[in-house]
Amino acid sequence: MAGRILLLNRTGEEITGYRFENVRGRSLPELFPDLWLPGQPGGSSGLVPRKEVDFHTASGDHRYLGISVSPLRTGERRITGYVFNFQDLTELRRLEQEVATKERMAALGRLSAA
């Protein structure tokens, strides 16, 4: 395994902003520096099943992604690659921040009223 991109489906294209034909065969860390593979220098020796990362799309938009990774195995259980599943958490993160801001404002209001 050389950490190369072999497939990017339509949903992956929509989330990342990259077209498969433009990233096919490219190095995973080159395109997605915050992604990881087991045994990468500076990385974990084991498989981290889920991670949340800041990501910039091909057009430069900022997104917050949840990424899960699973090994792709042969019938003999030998790992031949990895499957990365992306989930765009940007809107969820924005709503969480909005709720936290409102809670802080409400707490300030209670303090000033006391």
Sequence-ordered SSE layout with sheet pairings:
Blueprint: H1 10-16, H2 20-23, H3 28-31, E1 50-56, E2 62-73, E3 79-88, H4 90-113
Antiparallel strand pairs: 1-2, 2-3
Short description:
With 114 residues, the protein is α+β, with helices and mostly antiparallel strands. The protein is 34% helix and 25% strand.
Protein model, in words:
This protein has helices at residues 10-16, 20-23, 28-31, 90-113, and strands spanning 50-56, 62-73, 79-88. It is an alpha+beta fold. The protein is built from four helices and three strands. The protein is elongated. Strands 1-2-3 form a three-stranded antiparallel β-sheet. The chain has one domain (10-89): Beta-Lactamase (2-Layer Sandwich).
Following the backbone from N to C, one meets helices and strands in this order, namely HHHEEEH
Give the distance, in angstroms, between the N- and C-terminal Cα atoms: 63 Å
Largest sheet: 3 strands, antiparallel
- Global geometry: elongated
Share in helix: 25-40%
How many domains? The number is 1
Ranges where pLDDT stays below 50 over 5 or more residues in a row are none
CATH topology description: Beta-Lactamase
Indicate the CATH class: Alpha Beta
Strand content: 25-35%
* Strand element count: 3
Using only C-alpha atoms, the radius of gyration works out to 19 Å
